[in-house]
Amino acid sequence: MKAAPPDAGVAGLVGAVRAETGSAQSRAAARLMSILEDEPHRLPELLSAPGFEPRPPLLILGITGAPGAGKSTLADELVTEFRSRHPDLRVGVVAVDPSSPFTGGAVLGDRVRMMRHATDPMVFVRSLATRGHLGGLTLGVRGVIRVMELLGCSLIMVETVGVGQSEVEVARVADRTLIVLAPGQGDSIQLLKAGLMEIGDLFVVNKADQPGAQELYGQLLATLKLGVIAEGGAAGSGGLPGAPPQGVEPEPSPDLDLMRGRGMPEVHLVSALKRTGLGALVVSLERQADEGRQALLARRESDLREEVRQAILEEAHRLLEEAMGPAGTTAEQVARVLEGTLAVEEMARELLRKCGSDE
Amino acid sequence: MAHVLRDAGFEVIYAGIRRTPEQIVEAAIQEDVDAIGLSLLSGAHNVLFPRVIELLRQKGAEDVVVFGGGTIPAGDVERLKAEGMAALFTPGTPARTIVETVGRLVGRGA
Q: CA-to-CA distance for A173 and A303, rounded, in angstroms?
């Protein structure tokens, strides 16, 4: 779909990312990302390319939550905080926004909040549209993350809108998933019940400066506490802080040790806009990345195999689509399935044989 | 405009208002875009539009199509095109014309 790409192929682009710096490097990396976004099944080409020796990042952080909760603003502030703490380390952000199911088009707006980092050579932001293809999206995101690893990004954030299966899928790609909630969205706790709670390793109540933030914080602690009890994880005595902390400056740090001790996900009260609570959040993320280092590295190993597996499934799906041909060419068989004279399984096997014989 | 293009099936990365040419070009490179659409009402198009094209050239990304819109006098339109702007849309241009032109510029039917 590119106008006039210097089509160096995956291996050539990997070489360019390694050899070049500055804009030339960014351009090669961006082109690689496009290939992996458009044709996710080509990810193994990247993994096996000569010179693809990515440095494992410190942390791949998934950020999700309801629209308007302030995910992009939080991600933007985390970039700033991380960059000021580690001037030599690179940060990558993958911002996923939904495609229109009607036209296939998309307006990707997460970058708006991150434009001040646009000229920071140590920050790479890439937007992805969901394109209505779940498996392909997840694989595409994995591909973009791999390229960010190749660029040497130490912190990689993947931001998604937290309303559906795709977010759960994308969360699996991350080492840790952070759920952002904000007051004034009456359904925040409902949203958690609908499945986000299970994928959250870390919760942020954003907009701490606004009315209702303390209440939401308290509610969230109560909900999570119930969750821990249900899982049998809340042994011992001593009450959890059911009530929100008092004071003008909302820094819930005294509670954090208690949450950790209980095996509870941490809850942070921050204001991305007013820049409160962010330092504690970054320190906490760094600590988690550090403590879980061995587990993270082991998981990334198995991720590699999972990526190849997904690429094969993606390609098989594509081949099957091809074997079925454009809508209508299998109309006769479809009619027989409807009549009950042809089993779906039989038809699927036939198509698979057809795929196999095309090789 | 972003929404019009989305409804025509484009993926549009909205970068916000009052961006510098440097920010725009870096974002365009990282996103590997086919085209950049610039909107400007301040009258500084004769400086800022060519600056974007120049930066793209410097960074080896001259294959990115640049189009623009805003209150641009007819005399400036020809000059800007000569400097590398692929298309310029003045107020009142029908959305459909813009969609078709952009589609043609990036080599896809819209």
A: 8
